[in-house]
Amino acid sequence: MKLIRITILTLVVALAFSSLANAQSGEPLAIIMTADGPIMPPMLEYFERGIETAEQRNAEVIILQLNTPGGSVDTMLEIIQVMRASRVPMVVYVSPNDAIAGSAGALITMAGHASAMAPKTAIGAASPIDSSGADVESTLGTKIKEILKARVRTLVEERGTKAVKLAEAMIEDAKAVTAGEALEANLIDFISDDTEDLLQSLNGFSVQMNDGERTINTENVRTQDVNISFIEQLLLMLTDPNIAFLLLAIGVQGILIEISSPGGWFAGFLGATCLTLAVYGMGVLTVNWFGFIFLIIAFVLFVLDIKAPTHGALTTAGVASFIVGALVLFNSPSTPQFQRVSVPLVIGMGIFLGLLFFGILLIALRAQHRPVQIGAESMLGKTGTARTPVGVGDAGQVQLGSELWSAEKSAESEKIGKGDLVEVVEVRGLRLIVKKK
After folding, report:
1. Which domain range does residue 424 map to?
2. Disulfide engineering: 31 pairs with which of 54, 278, 337, 352, CB 3.0-4.6 Å?
3. pTM: predicted TM-score of the whole model, two decimal places
């Protein structure tokens, strides 16, 4: 027991000294974050978590690797507010090669305490659009543009007149520029081949923080990745228009199956879950809710074709309505390209649902023409063998399959003797009326 206590104490002391040595090693820490994809509400949670981690670990700098076509203006403004309040310098790095910082991403790049771009990247096209994806016109459009231009002026005014003019042109005229053009206008600080190159360039570079000027030290820097979490990835995935469309299609179908065939729980549960997730995604995405009416009409037509078979006419109309509804919902002409649903996916899903409901329709038609399998009507026309002589009003016995029945002869039948083949012509209670076959 004493030996165990000594061993535990030794381990605790060793761990304490190890932590102290790491804390006093003097090696600065750089937190590496990656924002790849549209700027949506779940991205804000990732920014907050990354900055909080950097502050808790007393990091020297945060490197945000950014590649985005744009996204929500409201989310962008909240992200900028979080970034500017960070106690750790935040450097926005548009990377890798061929990446873009479009629309909202351009303003996030300007909001960094320092900014850099990889070669062959682009930044700009930050004109605001409304909830339907169209350019904001008239007085409202002017107000929004003026607010955003005022915001970027506060972010880049220290970079000089040329940088301010370029930033305003990105909002007013949707102007976009290359990394070289952005550096020439002093809109960014560096063009770096990779993160390691950027960290070397940042060594000794001074940035302006809320508490004054600070010089970044990246000599012998060690890096730590703060990746997006599973929940954040899941929420971002739900804002993918293709995923939202699939969830909507599966959800509505599940609910209709539950309504048409009540009693089971799985279809209804799956449908409700998928619809809930789809509504979250559509609440974030740019959608035209008029298309939802066509989707409802499509599924109503599918169900009607099952209840009142029309040999596939309603199913065909339902497929057309489904495809039109999905395209109107997600792919209005002014919707940003990155928020559009795949047209082949919509057409493929429409055809799949049409074939599915057409198959159900065939099963329903066959069921209508299938002979009755149970009850008295199912006995009519069946043949068997007389086990005893059978007369009129005189009960005999006949065998149908493996069953033995009480029977009597019909008035029109010939005389039935033992071993004769008989056919059922009527059922009276538990007695069969048969004729000689």
Report:
1. 376-436
2. 54
3. 0.66
